[in-house]
Amino acid sequence: PPAQRRFPAAPQHVVLYPLVSKSLRNIAAGKDPLEGQRHCCSIAQLHEHYSLGYPDLDELQKNPQPLIFDIEVLKVEAPGSYQQDPWAMTDEEKLQAVPLIHKEGNELYRQGKVQEAAAKYYDAIACLKNLQMKEQPGSPDWIELDQKITPLLLNYCQCKLQCEEYYEVLDHCSSILNKYEDNVKAYFKRGKAHAAVWNVAEAQADFAKVLALDPSLRPVVSKELRSLEARLREKEAEDKIRFKGIFSQ
């Protein structure tokens, strides 16, 4: 069994423990530990949160009680093997971690682990977004970070395409194209997402833009357009059968 140590009970001020526990549960779920919390003092946080989202923590917040903590050692990691979560990194650590996380995402994608790859790309984007928030929008440093975010966001969109989460792809690709009107990959991925959700005119317009920017992609675009046309014919045939059944009743 894991090594276990019981610390002797001692009077401690633990009125804020429910908030701490919620943050730890967020971390375990891969979320921002401060998700849902405002930037205010701790006592104000207590009054602000009518519910923490966990009945046991809500009860403990209403009726504080002495607590005893059992701490178990589950794993011992070798020095240098532990990778911090993005929220816990310093600015310098975030910059150093991004290429490594990007590489891990690429390897997972090559292995067919699309969901896991998307999570890696998301972590790398989160690191850069956190740094970007500290810069003046449009400044050279802000633009440099944004140009690092864009390829990661496109990789993330590729994962979401394969996971059939098309509306997320539409949102992210549109945000890229609002800033970089000549991004061929963003037009192509957005075109595929439009086609998947039957936005035919929008898909055709995006694919036309791809060809205008890079004519060498004509074979790939032609394949996507043929696939869209075939799906449209199938849908029309299915609709005829469906409506025929309705009107014949």
Entry summary:
Residues 7-73 form the AIP/AIPL N-terminal FKBP-type PPIase domain. The chain is mostly helical and 249 residues long. The chain has helices spanning 17-28, 42-48, 55-62, 91-110, 114-132, 140-162, 166-179, 184-196, 200-213, 218-247, and strands at residues 3-6, 70-73.
Could you characterize what this model shows?
The chain has ten helices and two strands, in the order βαααβααααααα. By secondary structure, it is mainly α. The protein has a domain at 4-72. It is found in: Cytoplasm. GO terms for molecular function: peptidyl-prolyl cis-trans isomerase activity.
Describe the SSE topology.
Layout: E1 3-6, H1 17-28, H2 42-48, H3 55-62, E2 70-73, H4 91-110, H5 114-132, H6 140-162, H7 166-179, H8 184-196, H9 200-213, H10 218-247
